[in-house]
Write a structure and sequence with these properties.
Strand content: 15-25%
Distance between the termini: 24 Å
Number of helices: 5
Largest sheet: 5 strands, mixed
Shape: globular
Helix content: 25-40%
Strand order of the largest sheet: 1-2-3-4-5
Order of helices and strands: HEHHEEEHEEEH
Length: about 170
């Protein structure tokens, strides 16, 4: 492996219960700023929601880049054999520098490796309502009405632009 490849690999670490404080802070800051309609989460709630498989046969992919203030979480739903991008966050001051693109690519690589190891077909990484992680959110302009699962990304948001620009690179 080249030194450049080794350095790139060092940028990413498994996100876990033991090292999730920064990820929780980034997530909650985006909520406070109104960038997402999700509810604020404690570390315990974050760990249970994002870092724990939902059902037997599911798998969690959680990656963070501590030096770049970002993380990405994906899930494999074993019962329907589909892969999902659950959450990607980059601290607002670190955006538009390719961090999200690199995190998405790292997630894609980990999912492809997992699929190969388990002899599972991987057609795509989805962003959809069918994600096994039920992220409660508040519907805008409804006085606090809550919905039990995220619809994907808000049209016109930075996340929408990011995924639109990524096109069909999800395989």
């Amino acid at each position: 492996m080249s030194r450049r490849a080794e350095n790139k690999m060092k940028k990413y670490h498994a996100l876990s219960i033991q090292n999730m404080s920064k990820a929780v802070a980034i997530y909650n800051e985006a909520t406070k700023k109104g960038e997402q309609n999700y509810l604020l989460l404690s570390e315990e709630e974050f760990g249970t929601l994002f870092l724990t498989p939902v059902k037997e046969g599911d798998h969690v992919f959680a990656i963070y880049a501590p030096d770049e203030d970002g993380f990405i979480i994906g899930h494999y739903a074993g019962n329907i054999q589909r892969f999902f991008v659950t959450m990607i966050q980059v601290e607002s001051g670190s955006r538009r520098k390719g961090i999200g693109t690199q995190l998405l690519e790292q997630l894609r690589q980990e999912m492809k490796y997992f699929a190969k190891e388990k002899s599972i077909k991987m057609d795509a990484m989805e962003i959809s309502y069918f994600n096994p992680v039920n992220i409660t959110w508040e519907l805008p302009d409804t006085g606090g009405h809550r919905h039990p699962n995220s619809p994907g990304v808000r049209l016109g948001s930075g996340a929408h632009l990011f995924f639109k620009n990524m096109g069909s690179c999800f395989l």
